[in-house]
Specification:
Elements: E1 2-3, E2 9-10, E3 13-16, E4 29-31, E5 35-36, E6 40-41, E7 48-51, E8 54-57, E9 61-71, E10 78-87, E11 101-102, E12 114-119, E13 123-125, E14 127-131, E15 150-152, E16 164-166, E17 173-175, E18 187-189, E19 195-197
């Protein structure tokens, strides 16, 4: 017998039952027809756009369009099946010490874009650039960055212990007159991001 395409155009296939078949549940030998839809409905999903020269990924998407025409759910016509375009996604902001670094501008950096990582008071120092890879489609992708060097800056203490004094013309500490030893003083930042000498 002939096997024809349903609701489409194409070649004709054939099926036959071998003359010596003894299997009541099978045994059919057949070749499928090649079915094509002369007209396909343009039901365009997000991420795709039609141009004068064909189909391409819409703005905000990346990839190469793959297009096929297949039967719709009612099997009474053809519809396009789109694939190949992926949504571009922003990179995840750096997970850093919130007292030391300011990454407020890095919360939603788009692919191919960048942001600045700065020192947050009471820290002082430079800044660095964080970049999101062009073409990023990974929702968990992190920014590419190196952290700036940030040093805590403590205010002058209200009172200085009698055994300590500032070195002349500098920020370093030394033992006061009448005392001996090596002064060990550090500017430390607490959990509330406050800086104090210790």
């Amino acid at each position: 017998c002939e096997v024809r395409c349903r609701a489409s155009q194409g070649t004709v296939g054939f099926a036959r039952c071998p003359i010596d078949n003894t299997d009541p549940q099978g045994g059919v030998e057949w070749s499928a027809p090649v079915c094509e839809f002369p007209d396909c409905v343009d039901t365009v999903p997000p991420g795709y756009m039609k141009t004068k020269v064909g189909w391409e990924c819409a703005e905000g998407y990346i990839g190469s369009v793959s297009l096929a025409c297949d039967a719709n759910l009612e099997c009474n016509g053809g519809q396009y099946l789109f694939s190949g375009c992926e949504l571009l996604l922003p990179c995840v902001a750096p997970d850093v010490d919130p007292c030391r670094y300011d990454v407020s501008g890095c919360s939603s950096v788009q692919p191919g874009s960048s942001c600045s990582i700065r020192c947050r008071a009471p820290y002082v120092g430079g800044s660095s650039i964080a970049r999101c890879s062009p073409g990023n489609i990974d929702p968990e992708a992190a920014l590419m960055y190196s952290l700036p060097s940030c040093t805590p800056l403590c205010p002058e203490p209200a009172t200085v212990p009698a055994a300590y004094a500032r070195e002349p013309g500098g920020w370093a500490w030394a033992c006061a007159d009448g005392h001996v030893g090596s002064a060990e003083v550090a500017c430390e930042v607490d959990v509330a991001c406050g800086a104090a000498w210790a």
